[in-house]
Amino acid sequence: MGFAVTRTSKSLVVPTSPTPAGETLRLSSLDRVPGLRHLVLSLHAFDGATRVEAAFDVCVAKTWQSRTRALRLAGRLADDHPVHVCFFANTRHLMLAGAAEGFYGNCFYPVTVTCSSAEVAAGEVVDVVRAVRDAKARLAGDVARWAVGGFAQDPYELRFTYDSLFVSDWTRLGFLEADYGWGAPTHVVPFSYHPFMAVAVIGAPPAPKIGARVMTMCVEEAHLPEFRDQMNAFAAGK
């Protein structure tokens, strides 16, 4: 028997923020991130977070920051314009007392981080990581608040506006272990993207490479060069 906690909205949410305006979002991929390794090890040593957790937080933070900087350079975002990053967290353990450990795909909560564009763009990566972690730490409280209708806007009513980035973590799904007789895959990519939704997928490069592979379709063509420059600078450890 399935156990679902999501609510279905009967009305469409009208975007109130800048949208892609019909422009096609462009693909970009970044592989093997030395800068990631340095930050992950630092966070792991500082607060005891697992390397997997730290890697996710850093990838989310830097991708969000790079995208925000690219949009600001193009004049799309004022200093006080709110920008958002959203990812999904397992909540089965918060819903049923004594539930077996593990992840359940039908029981999740959209964790959303919101800051001004200036805060994200001008801060150090560790500052953006801290914002991501603060949102993760609020998960139990936010789920409890949602369960009693404590939010003016249902957090499950997602807004696919151009100032929002959605992140999915593929690092532990086992895609790179699949072998149909030809060996492990060299690259795994999403089958399709939705042009109305700015997306980043965090994966892992095939063995023996180490690090992270960040695949995105999150900026219009006009913003792609600066976004790539920002991500490449981070990959180079700058």
Automatic annotation (TrEMBL):
UniProt-listed Gene3D superfamilies: Chloramphenicol acetyltransferase-like domain
Lineage: Eukaryota, Viridiplantae, Streptophyta, Embryophyta, Tracheophyta
Origin superkingdom: Eukaryota
Name of this chain's protein: Uncharacterized protein
Organism listed in the record: Triticum turgidum subsp. durum
GO molecular function: acyltransferase activity, transferring groups other than amino-acyl groups
Signal peptide: none
Pfam families according to UniProt: Transferase
Family of this protein: Belongs to the plant acyltransferase family.
